[in-house]
Give the backbone structure.
Amino acid sequence: MAAKSKSKTKTPLMAQYGKIKSKYPDAILLFRVGDFYETFGEDAITTANVLGIVLTNRNNGGAKIELAGFPYHSLDLYLPKLIRAGFRVAICEQLEKPSKEKKIVKRGVTELITPGIAVDDKLLENNANNFLASIYIENDEYGLSLLDISTGEFYLTEGNQFLIDKLLESFSPSEIIYSKDNKKEIQDWIGEEYYIYGLEDWVFNWDYTREKLLNHFKTMNLKGFGVEEDRLGQTAAGAILHYLESTEHNDTSHIFKIQRIQKEQSVWLDRFTMRNLELLSSNHPTGISLLDVLDKCKSPMGSRLMKRWISLPLTDINEIDKRLETVTVLRGEDNFRNHASDFFKRIGDFERLASRIAAYKINPREINQLKLALKAIPSLIEFLQDIGSDLIEGIRDQLNPCTDLVTRLDQQLNEDAPAVVNKGNIIATGFNEELDELRFLISNNQNILLSIQEKEAEATGIASLKLGFNNVFGYYLEVTNKYKNLGLIPDHWVRKQTLTNAERYITSELKEIEDKILHAEDNILVIEERLYQELVLHLQQYIETILTNAHMIAQLDCLLSFAQISLSNQYNRPNINDSLSIDIKQGRHPVIEHQLPPGEHYVANDVYLDNDEQQIMMITGPNMSGKSAILRQTALICLMAQMGSFVPAEKADIGILDKVFTRVGASDNLSKGESTFMVEMIEAANIINNLSNRSLILLDEIGRGTSTYDGISIAWAISEYLHENTLAHPKTLFATHYHELNQLEQLYSRIKNYHVSTKEINEKIIFLRTLQLGGSEHSFGIHVAQMAGLPQPIITRAKDILEKMETHNLTNDSKNKMPIVEKANSPSLQLKIFDAVDEKTLRLKETLATLDINSLSPIESLLKLKELKEMVDS
């Protein structure tokens, strides 16, 4: 607990701190005191723990209060740590310079930074968006808005909870705001997965939030953005604008449009499917995702857009074909691909530069980066002139090199300008006459003073005239008494000091030069800061153009990435059509093939599905045989095709999909009281309740979370429903260990049995990983256990039990569910030397077991013995 002051009075500084802190009770207040940011009380304890800095204390009216602080120039180091730890941070600055007349300087919060509101590069991931989400709930309907303030991307939509779930998974917001009236519902639903923050209920009033939107966009209505009828979405979006104001983020000119997320224009991928297919991230620490394979973008904007293309595959055949055609063209443009790659590496992050311009936080070095990027656009446009593609033509026509802006930047900004304005040397020579004069004065002040001395000596005839300086009256002219007595002193000289043998004088010209020299550096800084602020103000009018350039470059980068990976990985162009079939020839898993050891090739397979003849493929086979890979690769190939990418297959004819569902590898969600089976059933219910004729469904081992007979019954019933329901005939891949499901092929015309082939040699199983027609009656579970290294007594005992059960099922009626298995003899379960789980021992035993000693010649026997000895010694 923080120490409480026993004093009734506080020091003026702590009284000021307490007043400001009361306005931001849920944020860590970084309180600027001289050259330090300081935190007090509970904030100090938290800050010291998170940052690993010293916790001390300071006087507070006779009592002590906890104190932790760090130098102001270390803010870039420590602020990201606080934000990434999930804290809100209010930055309180000194708003005036300290003076002897004032006991305490004026202070105020200039910025409140939260996980979802950040524009500083040090707080952001380069290749990932940083979205703030807002959720509004009304009668089981939801409004959702998403804003990345660092790029200006602003979206809204509305729908049911499943849609919002899917979009949260796709956009992965860093923070979600909501009405406090919905606190329990939000916490129960998503509170553990995201950073959430509640606002007062009145903020989500539609009249208030709509007014916020209209005022921001300066429009009479929202028809121009296509969101006029989205009342719930507008409420969520307006709440975001309110939140920006309340956190002191008022510079939002780069947010010049809001877009509706058209759920009907992209493939429905719920959060289970996004995770199960590992589209954006792997479920394993050392694994890779589809994003890792497809994202070869060179620009941060491209990488961020690639994530959205993967999350939101298209459903419009014309738009998909435009991308595919562009990728086809770019594959043949080797020279352009190399040129574009160099261009993207140099271009920087247009989007986030625009947001920093809007917030007046862009530094001179970043503006020079912007200038270099704009200078490269004309050559990019020239390259694009000869590339025949509708998409490329649209990109080329919208690219704007901002020639007039580049000209001004060339004239005004030094090419080697530092990142910090107050370091000087920002404005180029020749741009401002007054600035040039001051700079000349500083660099040539001795020559200027010498010229004044020489001019005055020549005008007066005083050959020994000297020029000096002291701290009392500055620069002066010194004349010996000899010349003074000759009456050579001009009337415009002002005597300032009499010495024994000389007199000292000043002139108006000398005082003017002196004043300029002594204040030149300060005046230079003032002028440079003024000119720089004028430049940033001038840049405001180019924000929309810069963002358009960024979006065009991001599209081109993604298309080039598709072209490059298609060439590197031997992908082929798919055919997207309006049919209800999927026909993949020699398809491969795009991620798994990247993780194979050198020299090992992925076993490709054919898959055919349609709604009329082969709607459901029932796939059996042992674990590790490749069933799950075949399921996933089918979905990934279809989704890649609808993203506009070439695919890992010899040929792929894809009837457009509108939804992809998976029920794969559920795990317990004990924190919500949900078992593996409950998660399975929730996912299955989501599939059944949302299926369509253009859906693709992947079911992997459904029902395994409960007893065998319950599991078979549920799997059977789901298969029947998918086949027999009158709503839709979704294409389905069903991988299972339940061989009983093979009987469905005889009962239902559109269910076909397949198996992943294996070969058994000397009781060893070899996975051939080839999909073949016909069901499998053997799961090879004991063989897999043996391969995993279970001791031999366990394997032998398992075979005995399996044999008893299979005999029981063949000879007894169905009422006896389980045979009586006798207790094992203890000695048979004792481990012997060859039963140890040791790879070398097992290898030796396998070699001996397969050895035919009767067929060996004497010399072969000696060689075999030598081999066995080397095996033991290795």
Observations:
- Residues 121-261 form a domain with the Nucleotidyltransferase; domain 5 fold (CATH 3.30.420.110).
- The chain has a mean pLDDT of 85.
- The two ends are 61 Å apart (CA to CA).
- Residues 865 and 871 are 10 Å apart (CA to CA).
